[in-house]
Amino acid sequence: DISHEAPHHDLRFGAMFSALFQLNGLETLTIRVQVSTGIIVTDRDVQDAASAWPKMQNLSLRFASSEMAAGANPASQPRTYAMYSLEHLALRCMELQVLAVPLPNTTPVDNGVEEGNHGDLRGDADAGDRIADLPDDRDRGTVLLAESTTTARGDVIYHNKVSRVVLVGGEWSNVSEKIEEYLRKIFPKLGGTGNLEHITSG
Questions:
Q1: C-alpha to C-alpha distance for 94 and 59, rounded to whole angstroms
Q2: How many Å is the maximal CA-CA distance in the chain?
């Protein structure tokens, strides 16, 4: 459980916490950051976390992203990670049960961008860090069978244990039915509405 008063010179998640990616056996992690401007969380950060913590059971990042912090002007902030980045966690963290994360950039889901066609959904300007980097069936090989099932149509059916999701920061009114439907698809054990919630701060 890490509580951190962040300095204002570097509020990137990777710069602050990437050392934790060396702890591959982590099962529970809670990070609370006290900073009014929020933390910059990128798609690459989410991908790295999913790769680094395959045994994670309870991941709680209880702070707002820079774009979603109270009073932030989204036009002047680095774009936060895309909603579709959560697929990294859905596919790679098979022991994960409880997930609390900053509210992501939900625009692609709201705009109806098709799943599996996420190549240019990055929020920041780092070229190459794309959701298209998710391994396809050829790369995953037999591991795919444990993490998901691909139907004849190419649709992915997820097999993870996530039963509770908390979105931190931003406005709950921004979470549309499409977003809820999407989250329940990649985390099929979410079940009823009580298992998907929103809090304004950590």
A1: 12
A2: 50
Length of the chain, in residues: 202
List the single range of 104-108, 142-146, 160-164 with lowest mean pLDDT.
142-146
Q: Are 96 and 161 in contact (CB under 8 A)?
A: yes
Could you identify the residue written with the tokens 């499409």? 178
Backbone angles phi, psi at 69, to 5 degrees: -65, 150
| Per-residue three-class SS string for 131-194 | HHHCCCHHHHCCHHHHHEEECCCCCEEECCCCCEEEEECCCHHHCCHHHHHHHHHHCHHHCCHH
Task: Locate 91 and state its tokens.
Answer: 């596919």
Mean pLDDT value of segment 154-158: 76
Q: How far apart are CA 146 and CA 128, in angstroms?
A: 27
Tell me which amino acid residue 113 is.
Answer: V
Q: Cβ atoms within 10 A of the Cβ of 16, count?
A: 19
* pTM for the model: 0.74
Stretch 130-153: mean pLDDT: 44
Q: Which helix (H) or strand (E) holds 196?
A: strand 196-199
Give the whole-angstrom CA distance, residue 93 versus residue 44.
Answer: 16
Query: How many angstroms separate the CA atoms of 150 and 145, rounded?
Result: 9
